[in-house]
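Hallway conversation turned thread

IA: we were arguing at lunch whether anyone had actually written out NADH-cytochrome b5 reductase-like end to end. Turns out nobody had. So, for the record, here is the sequence (244 residues) and right after it the structure tokens. Reply here if something looks off.
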Amino acid sequence: IFDTYAAALARWQRARAAGNMELLVAHEAQSNNSELNPDSFTAFSLSSVEQLTEDTYQYRFELPGNSSLQLSLGQHIVLRGVVNGLEVQRAYTPISPGNAEGYFDVLIKYGELLLLASGTGLAPMLPILQSITENEEDETFVTLVCCFRSFGNIYLKPLLQELARYWNIRIFYVLSQESSLEKLPWSYQENTYTGRLNEDLMRTIINSCRRKPFVLICGSSAFNEDMSRYLKSAGLEENSCFIF
């Protein structure tokens, strides 16, 4: 693992010994050309995004002039960005020709899951969430909707809060017997709804998804029937849902 702190310290020591702080500036300027550096990130402009399949996209980035990435066969690059307020880094192998000039292409595949759980119906959702978060290459976006009677009835709060810290996991709570959000801890107020998970709220949640999700449902028979009806009303086909 490359120690970026040690590299930065070494550059500073060389600049101090030479009495020339411009050596630090010169290093930073390197990030403006197309020659990649293992200890720093280089900013490139995104020129286009092409959807190839329902969950696969081709991203094209611009390179200055007619330059190329100058990667050897089998080498990969690390892309960095901010998603849902969290910094995300992923390794990709460009799909563009090695001698492509002025651009490079990256293929990114996404998936989207919507998990609807009522009470103990949360149990089968947790292994799914953990399998996604434990796999660094899994870029599935997940929205988990937990339905409980009250805030006190929510179980496994620490685990759910920990899962919600992942860049690709969103967790909402729907509390049927709570009348006000003001009594809840502030960290829950933004992602909690009072009342029942009805058709209007379901549409709101689906519309907030990045793309059409595949839905998993687990709860009482009445809950499962209601959710299936709401999803159908929102335009999701039966083959886009699974009921535990």
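OS: looked through it. The chain has seven helices and eleven strands.
IA: good, adding that to the notes. The longest helix spans residues 4-18.
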